[in-house]
């Protein structure tokens, strides 16, 4: 394990004004997304869609990295492998390595993510073909009697084992314990479950000696469930999110890259901008969005070659909106630091 490489990659992934595109939809999920625009999924169509995204002129201004699926990391764009193509644009290639969330035996409403078997060998191969970071998604569902401690513990343990295996190969683990936003719970309940989950995750990461400086956390925001009759404002979401994370996420973690979790592109953009306005957080707070970055581009594209330019335009505009709010915050933070340093010098 080379800690310098891990730290460098982790920091590059949360460079000011930049974030990650999650384009790692599994075979089943990409089929679902394409079905919405009336297109049948197959490896060629999936690549045509993702190529439209990756070849968007100027997108590298806002994207530090892209998470790929196993199918895509083995495909090519303009005679370069996809990871080579992305690296050529200054975008860091990453890979989803989990094998999905499956029913947890004896806990009918809960899931545990699988994929540890053979992971060391798969990581060796992914590293050879250019992956510098990886993703593993655990799913925590909110319900009347759930999540159970057993579900949280099972997921936290595998997340930590995954993270340790990644670091062994100098691959930055993106640790994603996603508390789903779909239920009818209020903000407070989301805060409670997110707190419990993250506490357990960091406990297991520590037990497995994962180097916090060489990983990223990919969490949900603390937000009202989609079916809740009362919806918290962006400011409320931002304050609750930062407060929760300050309680449970160690300051050594270089970055928090939020998932969008089914928020609309505008919601995800606005909430992240507000989160970045809350003072006092030690981490870079950025994005690792799938749907919120892709939705507009996907519907504009609609599977037609003649729509590629318009779809790229929609994609670039969304990435710009999300990225610029982060960059503005970063500039302000730097200015404040410079001011503080000057004051300190005068006082010294
Ligand atoms: P969403 O932003 O669509 O939630 O996807 C992010 C992701 O990678 C989920 O694992």
Automatic annotation (TrEMBL):
Pfam families for the chain: Glycolytic
Record keyword Lyase present: yes
SUPFAM superfamilies to which the protein is assigned, alphabetical: Aldolase
Entry keyword annotation includes Lyase: yes
Pathway: Carbohydrate degradation; glycolysis; D-glyceraldehyde 3-phosphate and glycerone phosphate from D-glucose: step 4/4
PROSITE patterns: ALDOLASE_CLASS_I (PS00158)
Keywords, comma-separated and alphabetical: Glycolysis, Lyase
Enzyme type, top EC level: lyase
Reactions catalysed: beta-D-fructose 1,6-bisphosphate = D-glyceraldehyde 3-phosphate + dihydroxyacetone phosphate
InterPro entries named among the record's database cross-references: Aldolase_I_AS (IPR029768), Aldolase_TIM (IPR013785), FBA_I (IPR000741)
Similarity comment text for this entry: Belongs to the class I fructose-bisphosphate aldolase family.
Family matches, as PANTHER family: FRUCTOSE-BISPHOSPHATE ALDOLASE (PTHR11627)
Protein's recorded name: Fructose-bisphosphate aldolase
Native source species: Candidatus Daviesbacteria bacterium RIFCSPHIGHO2_02_FULL_39_12
């Amino acid at each position: 394990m080379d800690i310098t490489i891990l730290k460098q990659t982790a920091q590059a992934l949360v460079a000011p004004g930049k974030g990650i595109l999650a384009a790692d939809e599994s075979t089943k999920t990409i089929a679902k997304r394409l079905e919405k625009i009336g297109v049948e999924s197959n490896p060629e169509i999936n690549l045509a869609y993702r190529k439209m995204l990756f070849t968007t002129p100027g997108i590298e201004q806002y994207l530090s990295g892209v998470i790929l699926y196993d199918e895509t990391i083995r495909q090519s764009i303009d005679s370069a492998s996809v990871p080579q193509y992305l690296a050529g644009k200054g975008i860091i290639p990453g890979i989803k390595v989990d094998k999905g969330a499956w029913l947890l035996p004896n806990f009918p409403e809960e899931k545990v993510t699988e994929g540890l078997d053979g992971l060391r060998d798969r990581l060796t191969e992914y590293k050879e073909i250019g992956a510098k970071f990886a993703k593993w998604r655990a799913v925590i569902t909110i319900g009347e009697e759930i999540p159970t401690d057993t579900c949280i513990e099972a997921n936290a343990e595998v997340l930590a084992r995954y993270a340790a295996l990644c670091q062994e190969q100098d691959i930055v683990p993106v640790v994603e314990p996603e508390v789903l936003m779909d239920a009818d719970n209020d903000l407070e309940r989301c805060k409670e479950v997110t707190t419990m989950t993250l506490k357990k995750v960091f406990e297991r990461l520590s037990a497995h000696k994962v180097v916090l400086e060489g990983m990223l956390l990919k969490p949900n925001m603390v937000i009202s469930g989609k079916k809740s009759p009362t919806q918290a404002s962006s400011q409320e979401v931002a304050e609750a999110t930062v407060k929760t994370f300050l309680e449970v996420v160690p300051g050594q973690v270089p970055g928090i890259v939020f998932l969008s979790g089914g928020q609309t592109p505008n919601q995800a953009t606005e909430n992240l901008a507000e989160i970045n306005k809350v003072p006092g957080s030690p981490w870079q707070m950025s994005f690792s969005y799938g749907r919120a970055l892709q939705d507009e581009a996907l519907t504009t594209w609609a599977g037609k070659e003649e729509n590629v330019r318009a779809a790229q335009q929609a994609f670039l505009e969304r990435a710009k909106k999300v990225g610029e709010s982060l960059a503005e915050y970063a500039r302000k933070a730097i200015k404040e630091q410079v001011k503080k340093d000057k004051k300190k010098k005068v006082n010294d």
